[in-house]
Write a structure and sequence with these properties.
Blueprint lengths: L1 E4 L14 E6 L14 E4 L1 E6 L6 E7 L9 E4 L2
Parallel strand pairs: 2-5
Antiparallel strand pairs: 1-2, 3-6, 4-5
Length: about 80
Amino acid sequence: PAKYLVEKVKVLEGPKDVDLREVASYEGVYADIAREGDVIEARGKIEVVEDKLTGETYHRLLVGTLEGGGRDYIKRLT
């Protein structure tokens, strides 16, 4: 799977009060699409993640789900 840790997140659509820390996809097309320092835009399903080691709860954007209906994506802007 492709997994990108993100910071300085700007939510363009949907709930604004999420602690989004990563963007992930199980679709191979999104593997290696971005590198550290790149700016990306993504659309997908927000999931709650519960880290069993630290007890932290945060959010992940999952790209490529059935709920996305082909409208979700990850694209590199810079």
